[in-house]
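Annual report, structural modelling task.

Input specification for the zinc ion complex:
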Amino acid sequence: MSDVLDLVCELIRRRSVTPDDAGCQALLAARLQRAGFRIEHLRHGDVDNLWAVHGDGGPTLVFLGHTDVVPSGPEASWHSPPFEPVVRLCDLPDRENRNATIHGRTLRLYGRGAADMKGSVAAMAVALEAFVATHPRHAGRVALLLTSDEEGPTNLDGVRKVAEGFRARGEQIDWCVVGEPSAKERLGDLIRVGRRGSLSGALTVRGVQGHVAYPEKALNPIHAFAPALAELAAERWDEGNADFPPTSFQVSNLNAGTGANNVIPGELTALINFRYCTASRADDLRTRTEAILCRHGLDFVLDWNLSGEPFLTPPDGRLRKVVVDVCRELCGVEPAQSTGGGTSDGRFIAPLGAEVVELGPVNASIHKVDECVDVAELERLPDLYRAICERLLTG
Ligand SMILES: [Zn+2]
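The model returned the following structure:
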């Protein structure tokens, strides 16, 4: 059994359903401390965060990951228990697959978190141990940042809180590699170089309740809101840019009515969300939305929540170039460079001035029953992370 496979199995056995870390970070901290890293436990509320750093001065390269996992769902639906790691030989749909260890078949590791993202976390730890053992006097600093609150609904006490503390104490981060499972079909075929922002709003439109037979004595908020909604839905918020599609506006919930067909309701509520690109700013989207509502004469309250600013690591950024080269040379593929998908904790690190790139295993099984990772790819992942360290912090 390889070191990385052994470590990921140890992590899967710890039932770290978000936001419980279940001892994962203590295990990793002990290993990295032995390797010469300085350890800080940054616990906020129910959330464990770990900062392990090696070296001094700048530049600083950070590997970012999470030890929490999503719930398994009904354990009986799994072929093997989700928190008991198992390696099984699987038939390959594609016989050409380069990972085939035995004709047409491959080994996969099953367990909750195998791909999202205990596999990456174990690979990062193993890569960092090997890197500092070989290059004890590397340039700058190399660090591992872990949280147990990535998969939860709010992420208040995870990397968001850690980044606030980093900003306050002037912690400099130049490059950040996020281990989120980014690959589509095989390791290295896709990296994420940015993410859209997410801006949500809870809207209440006030009317006046009344009898449907006496509309002159009521004000129907559904009728009042309809033309404003049509305008919001048709609005072209921006044209996007070379790296992002245009900003999109969606209504995810719309409610009004008492259930009776003879009552004009007194209010309407809606939840709205923008997935926005770097061509727009959250402030402008807010202002433009409210201007449309005002133009339609609505009496409304709109509570905004900005859950993440968009970020983009520019094509000429040093980290982006290095990660692309490493995928080409070590995986033999030309990685797609994407800004798609949801959000990740990279959104909290990018505003500190860091270039952020996401590189992890195939994401086909994440959050599903029978989550798994290809063993050959898992065992190659530490080489990729270590090569990134070497290209940025040595020579
Ligand atoms: Zn994840």
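Residues 3-195+310-393 form a domain with the Aminopeptidase fold (CATH 3.40.630.10).
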